[in-house]
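Write out the 3D structure for:
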Amino acid sequence: MSYDFILAGCGNVGRAILRHLAQKYSVLVVDISAHGKILAEKYGADFKKKSALEIDGRVADIAINALPGSIGYDFNRVALNASMCVVDISFHDHDPFLLENICKKRNAVYVPDAGFAPGLSNMVAGHLYAKKPDEIVIRVGGIAEEDIPPLGLALTWSVEGLIDEYLRDARARINGREVRIKPTEDVQHFEIPGVGMFEEFYTDGLRTMLRTMDTPTLIEKTLRHKGHMEKVRVLMEIGLIGRGCINLDGVEVERWRILKSLLEHSDAKSARDLCIMHVMAKCVATEEAWKYLLVDRYDEKTGMSAMSRTTGYTCAIIAEHLLNKEWSESMPRAGVVPPETFGMSNEIYDKMIRDLAKLDILIRSIP
């Protein structure tokens, strides 16, 4: 049997993807966990308990990669070589454009970074790019609704990925010059009226946009509760945020695993979360400015976190458009198609934003 979608990995974000797509399409869930089987049965999808890397042949039109970054890139190659289009939310350091040749050879499309940020943030930035601004600044944050100890965070994504956010230099473009900035070096405050005052710092989320958009100033910053970075610096000083291992009674343990265990025994494990996206563009010559805001909260009705909703539903909408060939004439039929490309087509962007609004993922223009 050939499916519309194969969903590789079915954790919290995979659940949101499955919940949306299984209502209208045939979906095969491939996961090594019993949790994946439970979700597949709940939403009426088929299930195979096996490694996604063992998939043989073109079992679906679209492959959705919701795997950990450690194996996500390898799955992309497996799926593309089987002539399946791929929509990817796994986070890895590989250059997505290295898959261009496979895509062209197999007549397939690969959409990297198809989640919340990067992903939805790229789409909004791509939409603003059409206005030819001099500056685009993306501000995004996934935090606990309340500033709970120890870090004001809700555990809604990988602790390993969280730690990497502070250790990896942020790439940005400022006045036409590409720069690298350490996240801990330049911490500022930013207020969103009606939402709150936050701490902000540079992070490395622009990725494909540094290649596809020539805006002179292009920046991404992460939002956190005030005082967050001071706590992070303390954790860095005592070695809980860092690379490598710590020797505990003769056993080598990765540092991030220790912090993960501590956070899982804190209020961060059960905290309700809040996702914020603020994208601003401005043109110096005309003094015009455009701002878009998204604020999403934990869904009490479904029990889904804001991070699962904003990431999973964005991915699902992109995958749905790809399956239904809802494509602008200027977009390639085979190759790497970053999410900002969707924003550059008013027709596609407007349709995707409307589809997200039906799922209560609301992006609005603000003064």
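Residues 306-323 form the longest helix (18 residues).
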